[in-house]
Amino acid sequence: MKNLTDSFVFLSRWPSAGSFGFNIDILSTNLINLSVVLGVLIFFGKGVCASCLLSDLLDNRKQRILNTIRNSEELRGGAIEQLEKARARLQQVEKEADQFRVNGYSEIEREKLNLINSTYKTLEQLENYKNETIQFEQQRTINQVRQRVFQQALRRALGILNSSLNSELHLRTISANIGMLGSMKEITD
Fold first, then answer.
1. What InterPro entries would the database entry show (predicted)?
2. Longest dimension (CA), the chain
C-alpha cells in the first residue's frame, strides 16, 4: 500500500512543463471543476425556461388530443358494436326473407340496404367528427404556441430595450424629437 501512495506522490512532483501529472491540491482542482461546470450550466441553461414552457404546453395539448382521440375511438367502438348488431339483424332479416321470399322480396331487400346505408352513414359521421376534433385541437394548439412565442419575444425585446436605454440616451432621444418637431413647426409657418 505504501508503494502505491509513493507512486502518486512521485507523479505529483513531476514538472508540469511538457508533461502531464496529477494535481493533488484538492482546493484548486475543485475550484477549477466548479467554475467549468457553472460556466457550462450558465451557457446552456439560458433557453431552458422558454423550452420548458413550450414543452409543457405541447405536452398538455398532446394529452388533450390523445383524450379526444380515445373518446373518438370509444365512439367508433360503439359504432362498430352497432354495426355488429345491424349485421345480426341483417342475418335475421335474411332468414325472414327466405320465408317471405314469395310475398315481399323487394321490400326486404330495401330494408337491408337502408340498414347498411344508415350504418355506413353513422360511421362516416363519427369519422368526420373525429377528424374535425383533431383538426380543431391542432389549430388551437398552434394558435396558443404562436401566442406564447409572441409574448416571449415581446418580453425579450422589452427587456433588451429597457436594459439598453439609460437616462442619457433617453434625454438625447427626447431632445432630438423636440428638435424635429420644432423644425416641422418652422416649415409649416
1. ATP_synth_b/b'su_bac/chlpt
2. 113
Q: How many CA atoms lie within 13 A of 94 on its CB side?
A: 8
Checking 63-71 for CB contacts under 8 A at 24+ apart, the result is 64/137, 65/134, 65/137, 65/138, 65/141, 68/130, 68/133, 68/134, 68/137, 69/130, 69/134
Rg of the chain on CA atoms, in Å: 38
Residue 80 identity: I
Cell reading at 176: 432630438
Distance CA 120, CA 41 (A): 59
C-alpha cell at 9: 506522490
Query: Residue 86: how many CB atoms within 10 A of its CB?
Result: 19
Question: What span, in angstroms and rounded, lies between the C-alpha atoms of 137 and 4?
Answer: 67
